Amino acid sequence: MTPRVTLAVAVRVLTQLRRDHRTLAMLLVLPCLLQVLLWWIFDSTPLVFDRIGPALLAIFPFFVMFLVTSITTLRERSSGTLERLFTLPMGRLDFLCGYALAFGAVAAVQAALASGVAAGLLDLDVEGPLVLLIVVGVADAVLGTALGLFVSAFARTEFQAVQFLPAVVVPQILLCGLILPRDHLPPVLEAVANVLPLTYAVDAMEQLATTSGTGQVWRDVGIVAAFAIAALALGAVTLRRRTD
């Protein structure tokens, strides 16, 4: 991997995103609007929103980045752009890390906006520092990006890429503790939940919401980052230059 090439890939992706206003709006505005919608739904029961709000701050960046990254990468491959890029002195890790770096930068803005809306406009109780809340949001988004890059290697069409959502994302949302605390799950499902990366992303957000301590949060962020790195490594192995 060459840092200069990786940075060039990241700049290229950011330039494309800047020109694609719909995707940019989906990345930056949609998570905020979804939070406002859920706050409105639970307007008469604010304690419910206080309980699920931190988990949603972890889930929304993960979900959106997974969807956008998997479809965008597949489009690059099916259009032949990826094959042309690989005629240049660029490795697979350069491509994947460039994408992760670009979407990580977007994730920083997304996390800042979503955290500001939640803690400021919607009065979500957060005991931990706001900066760390943003860090966790960025880690969640990079995890979604890494998994999106990984699963895009197994899809042939954009429709197939979307089909990975119920297979990869939805089970993690169901088991992360959003619907039911994990210790209330059947033992087998609790064991599965404990090896899913989104579980630790949600734990970090909930820890920030309930206490000012940061030790457990950094541990969870480290686990999420390790999952993201592993997904990028697997993506480098499975990435195809074109769709057959």
Short description:
The protein is mostly helical and 244 residues long.
Question: How does this model look, in words?
Answer:
The relative contact order is 0.16. The protein has one domain. The chain has helices at residues 3-19, 21-28, 30-41, 46-78, 81-85, 92-121, 130-151, 158-175, 187-193, 197-210, 215-238. It is mostly helical and 244 residues long.
Q: Whole-Å distance between the termini?
A: 26 Å
Query: Treating each run of at least 4 consecutive H or I residues as one helix, how many helices?
Result: 11
Question: What structural category arises from helix and sheet content?
Answer: mainly alpha
- What is the count of distinct domains? 1
- Using only C-alpha atoms, the radius of gyration works out to 18 Å
The largest sheet, given as strand count, sense and whether it forms a barrel, is: none
Low-confidence stretches: none
Element pattern in H and E: HHHHHHHHHHH
- SS strand fraction: under 5%
Shape: globular
The helical percent reads over 70%
What is the count of β-strands? 0
Mean pLDDT comes to 82
